[in-house]
Amino acid sequence: MVYFAGPFVSDGKKKHKVQIPNYNGRVRVMVVAGNGEAFGCAEKSVKVTKPIMLIPTMPRQIGVNDEATVSATIFTNSSASGNVKASISCTGGAQIVGDDTKTVSIPANDNVTVNFRIKMDETAKDCIVTIKAKGSGDEAEVSTKLTVRRVTQKVTKSETYSVAPGQSQEATLNGDEIMAEVSGLEPFNIGPRTSQLLAYPHGCAEQITSKALPQLYLSQFTELTDAQKQQVESNVKSVISRIVNYQTSEGGMSYWPGSNYSHVWASAYVYLFLTEAESQGYFVNSDLKNKLGNYLTKAVKTWNSKYYATDYAFALFSLANASNPEMGTMNRMKESQSNLNNEAKVNLAAAYALIGHNDVAKDLISKTFGDGVPVRLVAQCKLGSGNGKSDADAIRKQLISDSWMSTRETAISLYAMSKYVTANPVASSMEFTAKVNSDKVADVETEKMFWQNNIANDIRNGKFSFKNSGKSALNVRLVSVTDVTQQEVVSNSNGLSVSVSYQSESGANIDVTSLPQGQTFKAVVAVRNTSTKNVENIAVTHVLPAGWEILKATGSDGISYQDVRDDRVLSYIDLLHNGSVNYITLNISATYAGQYYMPSISAEAMYDNTITGCTHSSMVTVGE
Length: 624
What we know:
Elements: E1 25-34, E2 39-48, E3 52-57, E4 61-63, E5 67-76, E6 82-90, E7 94-97, E8 101-106, E9 111-120, E10 127-135, E11 138-149, E12 152-163, E13 168-183, H1 190-199, H2 205-212, H3 218-221, E14 222-223, H4 226-243, H5 264-279, H6 286-301, H7 309-321, H8 327-334, H9 342-354, H10 358-365, H11 374-382, H12 389-400, H13 407-423, E15 430-436, E16 439-446, E17 450-468, E18 474-485, E19 492-494, E20 496-503, E21 514-516, E22 520-529, E23 535-543, E24 548-555, E25 559-564, E26 568-576, E27 581-590, E28 594-598, E29 602-605, E30 608-614, E31 618-623
Parallel strand pairs: 4-11, 14-17, 21-31
Antiparallel strand pairs: 1-2, 3-5, 5-9, 5-28, 6-8, 6-10, 7-9, 10-11, 12-18, 13-17, 13-18, 15-16, 15-17, 19-30, 20-22, 22-27, 23-26, 23-29, 24-27, 25-26, 28-31, 29-30
């Protein structure tokens, strides 16, 4: 414990009372005094004690349906032995298994450990575990917050209604979270797609940037509450402050913190975000941004027709967006169109559109193909309102569908749609009210084109009522998200094979189904590419049972970055060649007695959801 107080003005004596938390041992008390010309100090070791003290021991978190032993070590500072009555109580869906009260005899000036058992039911949420000990004329009480971990899959369902002026619409609500989006235009799923970005567990330079980029534009066309505005501002500022951890010595951006290898595309993407954030009034470190811009300018000058042009063309687009175009490379690339793929042509066309070279931009766009290309939509918006409708419609359909989109695809699509909506505003206003059961959740009159909010949580068979009081038809989209607890998972391999072996400290294979408390061992995870091609940007997620603790995590040479947390290790592989295998080793301790769910270990290509693999889940026991 650490406690500071002062400074104080004293006439020679001063008494202080300090509230000591649950602590057993000695503290050092230090005093420093001075009068401006002289000073002095003193210190003393003080034993913290009372007749009865207790220290609880339990996992830092626990899973649904897990059963854990909660230990209470009770200390007495009495010269005589005696009986102490210990009890346990819980909130938040934790059930006590067996006795909730035990009486133990403790020798003089000694301690005894009492064990209780708790189990989390399906409805369990973060709970408070309270242990009390009473005896020897004294009592002690300690309450501990126990985090409940859910290994879940999100199931999303949506419904869309068109409500004519003066008309009403009703619907039934079921879900853990209900979001509503109302617009005079056809909806494009702003809220749910933004929520998916914010909930994404991995954090390379692209992924953290993708969390923030679409949020820059929300207030321009969506009615936000004060709380939403504060949250958006906090999210954007958080990402801006984190970006510096990815900058390399040459000024570019690496994919992972601490790496010194700069990626052209990631650097261009971050530069685009910083430029847009700065234009929205956010403070951006000028030294960081200038170094990044200088790196991109130098990098694109090295491009030649032998290089993969897409990333460099995107860098040219990002530089043009910052009013810092590199015309020499733009013109060289334009003259080498036969070496450009469709995406590179789109990026180059957008760069020319942003600097006002409209004829060149239109010529390049005419040579591209496909529907729903976000950067092309940005270029078309710059060329004048009314352009890009086919791209906007295709992007909107993709956003409102249930189909998987990568973080990069989602963020750039929302970014492009924000540019389109801004370039093609709807003149009419929106006026409507909405209720969930009898509670009014919206009473809106706005000139904005969109409104979206979370209108209900943990609701079953709720009644949604919507009234369009305006003069134009409104589109109402209701999105329900339900967390389904993931229990039995079977192993599978779709281009990636994941396996794990458990070894004792001597290297012998062991069965971890049942382990004694305190045993240390290793988990060696093998990730093999079984597809017919090289796979890039693989994320491996290894979540441990709540009764195990990570002591150390290491990876083979192919592991580019590891994020080690309390209960899991996230490992990332930049490139895994066909037939190759990478290994991840965890040193683990079976720390807390109980029965725990062991989640599957999964691997996924972060930008190709067809390439995945995982082990099976199971239950494990840690014995007392």
